[in-house]
Every structure is written in C-alpha cells, then in structure tokens.
Amino acid sequence: MDIKIEFIPHKQHRFTTIGHWFVEDDTLTIQISREICWQNKVAVIFHELIEAAICIARNVTTEECDAFDELFEQEYDAGLWPRSVEAGFDKRCPYRLGHKWGTRFERFALWLMRANVKQCNEECDLLMGIIVRPITRMVP
C-alpha cells in the first residue's frame, strides 16, 4: 500500500475536520487542512496515520467510516451535537479506537515539538467555525 499526504484548502473537506483519510486503489491518502500551522500539520498527520492504520488492521473500511461521518454531519445539522463534539469519540463510531489512539499520538507530537496545545486546538476550532466558550464559575 502506498501512502500519500495532501494539504488541501480547508473548505474542500467533506466533513467537519482538519484531517481525513481514505483508502482507494491500494493507496492510503491523508488530507490535511493547508491553513493550519506546521506543528498542527505534523500532529494531524500522526493522528490520521495511526487512526487509518488501526482501521486497516481491523478491516474497518473507508466506506464504513465515511458513512458514519455523513450520519454525524446530519446530526450536527439537526442540532443533536455541537460541532465541538468529535464524531470519533461517539460509541457508534467504527473508527473510534483509531481516533482515540490518533488523538493521543497527536497530543504527544505537539508536546514533543513544544507547541502550545491550547493555541493549536483554538486554531483548528476557529478554522472549523467552532466557538468554544470558557466555563464560568458560579459564585454564590
């Protein structure tokens, strides 16, 4: 299997994401949003590579993953989930194990590069149009 990494304009992603992978004609293609900083690009490559490898090893197909992502996008649009909820953590998600490990590798890569994880997450949220409001403390 060949592996191809592409940096694409964020608006070309099919789903609410910064990174996406698929297998076609025995090639694993990883697509990353072009607009993110280099540290985020490296971290997301790790995330997608680990997620895809676990799925491929467990016979979870691109079609199964994309079908779930399409369902989750419909649920976003219906207001069932805020866009800040990642589809990969949902218990129904066929790539959940890969997503969990991919997220761990992503964070580890950011740590190794001494990147500011909070800033990197905010960069991704901003690009995806996610507004995360800080939790305010209730004072009696």
Question: Could you walk me through the main structural features you see in this protein, from its secondary elements to its overall organization?
Answer:
By secondary structure, the chain is α+β, with helices and mostly antiparallel strands. The protein is built from four helices and three strands. The chain is globular. The chain has one domain. Helices cover about 45% and strands about 15% of the residues. A three-stranded mixed β-sheet has the order 1-3-2, with helices on one face. Strand 2 and strand 3 form a beta hairpin. The longest helix is centred in the middle third of the chain and has 20 residues.
Unreliable spans are: none
End-to-end CA span: 60 Å
The biggest sheet amounts to:
3 strands, mixed
Quaternary: single chain
Shape: globular
Strand content: 5-15%
The total count of strands amounts to: 3
Domain count: 1
User: Which class do the helix and strand fractions yield?
Assistant: alpha+beta
- Helical segment count: 4
Tell me the strand order in the biggest sheet.
1-3-2
The percent of residues in helical segments reads: 40-55%
Mean pLDDT: 92
Radius of gyration from the alpha-carbon trace, in angstroms:
15 Å
- The sequence of SSEs as H and E is EEEHHHH
